[in-house]
């Protein structure tokens, strides 16, 4: 039983409870609470100097995510034959915005890969980097010459990660040319011809197999010769006019090695002249171009037999024109040495993240 004094003490408390209860009832009846904070995304800002190539930026004004694409850096350590080229070639010709090509050796520690042209490597390797190789970096050995014309010196094994070469089994295959399917089939028009067979040579070496074959072949058929080897210099502009005016061209390689098929094949093909090839096997050539696009010396028992066949084609226009049937469907594309091959290397570095090591370069290339 409560006493008057107890009741007087409880009266203020009860009054307070009643007032608070009434206030809560009023709020629930007339004021609608917001629950937006339950689903509003938390926004954050990253300072520009903290941004890395993989950082996502989210601004307070938009939910759009912006990414900075990581660039691939290729350092050309030894410029092939000192031939300077447009280092923006990959971007301008192939739309490769992500490739940074440079010859600045101060970029050594940052480069994803280094490109070394074999013909410019000194025999004692003294012009190769002295600093320790960064763990992420790949060294690319580039050589478009045949083994017969490439110095085989000590120290090349266990040095490179990748090979860039004309061989099909190279890590980065690089051809002297290739055929591409035409978008629209178009009838081939034969250029005007006023010469039967032509040969343009700068390096005339009597010990080469091609020279020995030529000397016997010319005893049976007329051959028009040009180039420094014959004391008749030919400029790049003159080359196209000469070759297109010949029915046949001697596409003789300076040495015979698997897959070593150079511009000596592709340039006559592009100019509407039938190449007579001396190099690797017919089967090897047919990997790159149609079998009826060229004539192979191996198909004849002797240079005289080849000469007799060329005389037949000279007089039979129908048989001769069959060597151009393929041109209705394909175009010939040449490659830009050395810069286009470097673009291939940059693309490889970007798309293939596997670790590679080439343990025995000398055994692979020189056997």
From TrEMBL:
Instruction: Return the protein name.
Output: Fucosyltransferase
Q: Where is the Fucosyltransferase C-terminal domain?
A: 191-364
Q: Where in the cell is it found?
A: Golgi apparatus, Golgi stack membrane; Golgi apparatus, trans-Golgi network membrane
Q: Which residues form the Fucosyltransferase N-terminal domain?
A: 70-177
- Recall the taxonomic lineage recorded for the source organism: Eukaryota, Metazoa, Chordata, Craniata, Vertebrata
Q: Known InterPro entries for this protein?
A: Glyco_tran_10_C (IPR055270), Glyco_tran_10_N (IPR031481), Glyco_trans_10 (IPR001503), GT10-like_C_sf (IPR038577)
* Species whose genome carries this gene: Oryzias melastigma (Marine medaka)
* Membrane topology field: Single-pass type II membrane protein
Q: Subunit info? A: Homodimer.
- Transmembrane residue ranges: 12-31
Q: Sorted alphabetically, which PANTHER family does this protein's record hold?
A: 4-GALACTOSYL-N-ACETYLGLUCOSAMINIDE 3-ALPHA-L-FUCOSYLTRANSFERASE 9, ALPHA- 1,3 -FUCOSYLTRANSFERASE
């Amino acid at each position: 039983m409560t006493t008057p004094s107890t009741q007087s003490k409880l009266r203020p408390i009860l009054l307070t409870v009643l007032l608070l209860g009434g206030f809560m009832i009023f709020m629930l009846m007339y004021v609608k609470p917001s629950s937006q904070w339950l689903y509003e995304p938390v926004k954050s800002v990253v300072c520009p100097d903290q941004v890395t190539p993989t950082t996502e930026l989210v601004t307070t004004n938009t939910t759009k995510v912006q990414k900075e694409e990581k660039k691939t850096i290729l350092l050309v350590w030894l410029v092939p034959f000192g031939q300077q080229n447009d280092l923006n070639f990959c971007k301008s010709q192939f739309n490769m915005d992500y490739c940074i090509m440079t010859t600045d050796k101060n970029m050594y520690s940052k480069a994803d890969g280094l490109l070394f042209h074999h013909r410019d490597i000194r025999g004692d390797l003294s012009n190769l980097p002295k600093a320790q190789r960064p763990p992420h970096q790949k060294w690319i050995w580039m050589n478009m010459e045949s083994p017969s014309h490439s110095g085989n010196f000590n120290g090349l094994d266990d040095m490179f990660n990748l090979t860039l070469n004309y061989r099909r089994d190279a890590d980065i295959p690089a051809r002297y040319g290739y055929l591409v399917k035409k978008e629209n089939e178009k009838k081939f028009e034969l250029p005007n011809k006023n010469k039967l067979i032509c040969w343009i040579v700068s390096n005339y070496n009597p010990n080469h197999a091609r020279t020995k074959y030529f000397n016997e072949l010319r005893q049976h058929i007329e051959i028009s010769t040009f180039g420094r080897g014959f004391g008749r210099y030919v400029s790049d502009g003159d080359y196209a006019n000469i070759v297109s005016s010949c029915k046949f061209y001697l596409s003789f390689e300076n040495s015979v090695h698997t897959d070593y098929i150079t511009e000596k094949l592709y340039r006559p093909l592009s100019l509407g002249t039938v190449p007579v090839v001396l190099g690797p096997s017919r089967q090897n050539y047919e990997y790159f171009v149609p079998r009826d696009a060229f004539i192979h010396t191996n198909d004849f028992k002797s240079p005289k037999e080849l000469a007799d066949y060329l005389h037949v084609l000279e007089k039979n226009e129908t048989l001769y024109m069959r060597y151009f049937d393929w041109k209705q469907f394909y175009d010939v594309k040449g490659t830009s040495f050395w810069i286009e091959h470097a673009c291939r290397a940059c693309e490889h570095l970007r798309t293939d993240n596997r670790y590679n090591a080439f343990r025995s370069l000398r055994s692979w290339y020189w056997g």
